């Protein structure tokens, strides 16, 4: 069933019949191959893209070079181990990896527990809505591009907020990032999930 | 948790702090607990985390060791050879959302209440000391005691309700106050009000200065 889902993702990307759609889903498709077939080549591609970003993120957050190296490897190993928990309807892969890196950073620098909200995931039989997944990945890419295009000063502020240099009251800056669409998309995915949970498994 | 009509939500500021991972542990508990009850804030948090993902994508790269991928596969293989002893998931009674149940070590029945006078009870949760989280039990119609906020204070209703001069707060609602707010919240008449209250303690000076000096120093 999982393999089927992978193929459907890829098919959707092809069906979109534009390279953009395929590109938007490339990480999702690779993750599906890691999850369903323990595909090491797919993982290597993910590693080459994300590990250097995780390492940079950690170093900018105040983790020293050698610790950041170990930690980036560890974060990527977690990506492999938790591949089944990645939900492309609710986050882009970059976002999901960001949350893993963030939690690892809190663990490392503050030695604190990180309480997480009660999870809504409801086992593998929850049918993913491919269109939703594609939509969310595309919105995430738009957000990434919007961030890249912000004036240097604002972008720097947002980055620093996420590297943990700023207190939370300083984060509340008006950046005009297009969060609305992502928010409503995620809301829709949650509504679907709640609905599916009420119906019970097939 | 049953879904109720939540009308008082977390602010973007707090959600952004939680997404970035910069809030004290006690605040993380109240955010995680509220989000467990509130899909609107869950979606808003996901949007803030999406910004984190965009930052990860755009904020540069650092080359890894040549053998990093092999080392990563070694970690993966190691983990598969020696499966980590998974702690048995504890079955709580469902009276508290999971993140809070974790800290209490059970449901409402397991809270180790301490009398705080006038029928009010409280239980302080064990967190790092940068901020404090406590559960409060207030009998029907009683004033909610001043939980000593000198900075930001967030109160989340878990059961029952309270109201103050301005507003009414039911299950799942959060009230966010800064030090300036002067109010007298009162528990609803129908049933005891149980809430989670978090305050950021002005820790730096605690113990260094007599408490009475603090208001004058405007810390």
How is the topology of this model organized?
The complex is a heterodimer of chains A (202) and B (219).
Chain A: H1 2-15, H2 19-24, H3 26-37, H4 40-60, H5 65-81, H6 93-110, H7 130-149, H8 152-163, H9 168-171, H10 179-199
Helix pairs in contact in A: 1-3, 3-4, 4-5, 4-6, 5-6, 7-10
Chain B: H1 12-20, H2 25-37, H3 39-58, H4 68-81, H5 98-104, E1 114-115, E2 121-124, E3 132-138, E4 153-159, E5 162-163, E6 168-169, E7 174-177, E8 186-187, E9 193-199, H6 214-217
Antiparallel strand pairs in B: 1-2, 2-3, 3-9, 4-7, 4-9, 5-6, 5-8
Helix pairs in contact in B: 1-3, 2-3
Précis, in short:
The complex is a heterodimer of chains A (202) and B (219). Chain A is mainly alpha-helical and 202 residues long.
What would you say this structure looks like, in words?
The complex is a heterodimer of chains A (about 200) and B (about 220). In chain A, about 70% of the residues lie in helices and about 0% in strands. Chain A is an all-alpha fold. Chain A has one domain: Rna Polymerase Sigma Factor, Chain: A (Orthogonal Bundle), CATH 1.10.1740.10. In chain A, helix 4 packs antiparallel against helix 5 and helix 5 packs across helix 6. The longest helix of chain A has 21 residues. The radius of gyration of chain A is 18 Å and the shape is globular. In chain A, about 40% of the residues are buried. Chain B has about 220 residues and is an alpha+beta fold. Chain B has a single domain, classed as Jelly Rolls (Sandwich), CATH 2.60.120.10. Chain B is about 30% helix and about 15% strand. In chain B, the strands form 2 sheets. Chain B has a 6-stranded antiparallel beta sheet with strand order 1-2-3-9-4-7, with helices on one face. A 3-stranded antiparallel beta sheet of chain B has the order 6-5-8, with no helix packed on it. The longest helix of chain B is centred in the N-terminal third of the chain and has 20 residues. The interface between A and B is large, with 78 and 61 residues.
